[in-house]
């Protein structure tokens, strides 16, 4: 039986390989996404996700961190990064070259962002996006879908929370991410049953209500 003929590897076109980062935070009671203004064609002046092409000798996650640092002005060590998806089905998503992009989403608690120094980023509502470069609007919409799925199935929302918080603050974060109100009793029952909260035995005033218990996340139980 004759061996199947295989083309040499040099007969295949090499697409450009890029990394883009969908960086989320919660600020002003809204889910924000960090965008940059493009300084080159194509889409000169349009807002886009921070990203860049991958160097030949560079790990993929390093590219993601460098994109945040150089293009977004954000310290990568303060950001939780996880690979999201690979986009490249549309052959002409980039008019310069056939491009495949590996997308990460980054989650960062807003107190870890120096909004004065990270002025390269435009923090836009993830629910009210302007026209964006490339297929970045579609990428952000997919990232929101995955983020919502994650927070409903695991403790993923804690990546967006401060070190200490009340149950009301945690519930508000879930409501912002899911874009819908949560029943207070059912939400608290579900969260407490996960056994991922540590009661810090102190109280915090929340408006005119009685002081609320303060919690932290038990990180060694992260899923």
Quick structural gist:
With about 220 residues, this protein is of the alpha+beta class. It folds into 2 domains: about 140 residues, Nucleoside Triphosphate Pyrophosphohydrolase, CATH 3.90.79; about 70 residues, Orthogonal Bundle (Arc Repressor Mutant, subunit A).
Explain how this protein is built:
The protein has 223 residues and is an alpha+beta fold. It folds into two domains: 13-152, Nucleoside Triphosphate Pyrophosphohydrolase, CATH 3.90.79; 156-221, Winged helix-like DNA-binding domain superfamily/Winged helix DNA-binding domain (Arc Repressor Mutant, subunit A, Orthogonal Bundle), CATH 1.10.10.10. It is 24% helix and 27% strand. The chain has four helices and nine strands, in the order ββββαβββαααββ. The chain has helices at 60-72, 136-153, 167-178, 184-193, and strands at 16-27, 30-37, 47-48, 51-53, 80-87, 99-107, 122-125, 197-204, 212-217. Strands 1, 2, 3, 4, 5, 6 and 7 form a seven-stranded mixed β-sheet that branches. Strands 8-9 form a two-stranded antiparallel sheet. A hairpin with a 7-residue loop joins strand 8 and strand 9. The longest helix is centred in the middle third of the chain and has 18 residues, at 136-153. The model has no long low-confidence stretch (mean pLDDT 88).
């Amino acid at each position: 039986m004759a061996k199947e003929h295989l083309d040499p590897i040099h007969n295949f076109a090499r697409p450009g390989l890029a990394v883009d980062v969908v960086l989320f935070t919660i600020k002003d009671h809204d889910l924000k996404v960090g965008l940059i203004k493009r300084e080159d064609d194509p889409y000169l002046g349009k807002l886009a996700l921070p990203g860049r092409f991958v160097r030949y000798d560079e790990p993929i996650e390093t590219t993601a961190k460098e994109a945040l640092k150089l293009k977004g002005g954000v310290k990568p060590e303060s950001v939780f990064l996880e690979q999201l998806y690979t986009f490249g089905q549309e052959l002409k998503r980039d008019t310069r070259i056939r491009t495949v992009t590996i997308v990460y989403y980054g989650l960062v608690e807003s107190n870890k962002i120096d909004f004065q120094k990270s002025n390269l980023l435009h923090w836009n509502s993830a629910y009210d996006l302007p026209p964006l470069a490339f297929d970045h609007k579609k990428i952000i919409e997919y990232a929101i879908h995955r983020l919502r799925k994650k927070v409903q199935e695991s403790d993923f929302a804690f990546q967006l929370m401060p070190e200490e918080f009340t149950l009301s603050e945690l519930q508000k974060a879930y409501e912002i991410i899911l874009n819908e109100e949560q029943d207070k009793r059912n939400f608290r029952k579900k969260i407490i049953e996960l056994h991922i909260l540590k009661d810090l035995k102190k109280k915090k005033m929340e408006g005119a209500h009685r002081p609320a218990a303060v919690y932290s996340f038990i990180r060694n139980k992260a899923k």
